[in-house]
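User: Design a sequence. Structure:
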């Protein structure tokens, strides 16, 4: 820290992203990316059309892409907001809607960026404990009288709640904004997008980083009431008006035009998830029910950190957190069948080694 840093940020603990090793090739199951490349049409759209136009700024309103997303989800373009990854969207949510008088609540075990934004904006924040088995209880948020952020399915657990439960939360907090972070919704969960037309205080956040194989393009979006979207726009135009670059916009449009390719990939991920869980079951692992493209699992013989390190030494990267409540557990991204077979082979080797 330099002596020039504002005192406002003295105690800030920044988010630590998952490892993105640049030196060696791992079987990379640590940051929930898709194992599948973008659809061939995406490569064409980026090569042929847009690279030669990089001398020009992109459309700050993202008109074409917002139109495509609105069409896909049956809403109007004014209900759609584009962000540089859903991380940026979350930033704008905290910036726009939360303050001393409007505190925020989120699950105590969830996406690690929520408390970082709360700390960045020095917000009064409530970390709501999960229930037995890391289950999120919707009742715990009903009438809470705070802005709410919930990942559904939750991360790193993979557990999801239903639309009716979400509706209960939204309905019972009419003077606060409820943000449902659906980063992993396309792997078997039930989206609450149909509620958007009914409630002016609901924002649904999604990303192109997982199901749509575009983590490197950085694109997230929100769907919600036009007035909430206009507020997010205020934040964007006060921060970075050209937040989505040309190449990402072209890639995303081609992505939406090739939706079936991604639906099929999503189906394969769910198949590989069921396969991985059943193989881990045979080895005595305990795995939470997951509706996401990852599983949260623990091994009775090997503690989470030790399993993470042993797998890494064998070339397989998974995710582990040192937090005491989840230190026994590892989060494993579901990749291709071949990747999961390598994981399982290495797990079997490790179990043999510990005897
Ligand atoms: N929300 C959740 C729950 C996540 O796990 C992630 C990915 N780390 C994000 C949001 C951010 O994703 P992105 O910025 O790539 O859209």
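Assistant: Done.
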């Amino acid at each position: 820290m330099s002596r020039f840093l504002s005192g406002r940020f003295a105690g800030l603990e920044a988010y630590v992203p998952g490892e993105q090793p640049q030196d060696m090739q791992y079987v990379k199951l640590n940051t929930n990316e898709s194992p599948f490349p973008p659809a061939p049409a995406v490569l064409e759209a980026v090569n042929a059309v847009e690279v030669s136009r990089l001398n020009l700024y992109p459309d700050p309103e993202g008109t074409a892409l917002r139109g495509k997303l609105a069409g896909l989800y049956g809403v109007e373009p004014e209900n759609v907001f584009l962000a540089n990854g859903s991380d940026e969207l979350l930033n704008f949510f905290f910036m726009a809607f939360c303050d001393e008088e409007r505190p925020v609540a989120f699950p105590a075990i969830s996406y690690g960026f929520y408390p970082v934004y709360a700390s960045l904006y020095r917000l009064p924040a409530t970390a709501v404990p999960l229930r037995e088995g890391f289950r999120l209880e919707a009742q715990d948020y009903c009438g809470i009288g705070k802005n709410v952020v919930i990942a559904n399915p939750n991360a790193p657990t993979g557990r999801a709640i239903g639309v009716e439960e979400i509706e209960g939360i939204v309905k019972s907090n009419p003077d606060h904004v409820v943000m449902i972070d659906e980063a992993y919704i396309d792997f078997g969960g039930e989206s609450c997008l149909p509620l958007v037309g009914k409630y002016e205080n609901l924002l649904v956040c999604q990303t192109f980083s997982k199901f749509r194989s575009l983590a490197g393009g950085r694109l997230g979006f929100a769907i919600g009431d036009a007035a909430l979207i206009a507020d997010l726009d205020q934040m964007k135009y006060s921060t970075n008006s050209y937040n989505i670059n040309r190449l990402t916009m072209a890639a995303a449009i081609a992505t939406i035009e090739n939706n079936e390719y991604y639906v099929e990939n999503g189906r394969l991920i769910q198949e590989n998830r069921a396969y991985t869980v059943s193989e881990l079951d045979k080895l005595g692992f305990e795995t939470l029910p997951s509706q996401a493209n990852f599983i949260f699992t623990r091994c009775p013989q090997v503690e989470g950190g030790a399993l993470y390190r042993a797998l890494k030494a064998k070339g397989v990267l998974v995710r582990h957190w040192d937090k005491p409540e989840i230190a026994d557990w590892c989060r494993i991204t579901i990749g291709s069948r071949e990747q999961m077979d390598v994981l399982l082979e290495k797990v079997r080797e490790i179990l043999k080694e510990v005897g």
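The pocket of 4'-deoxy-4'-aminopyridoxal-5'-phosphate is lined by residues 85-87, 111, 151, 155, 181, 183, 207, 209, 215, 220 (CB under 6 Å). The CA atoms of residues 167 and 195 lie 7 Å apart.
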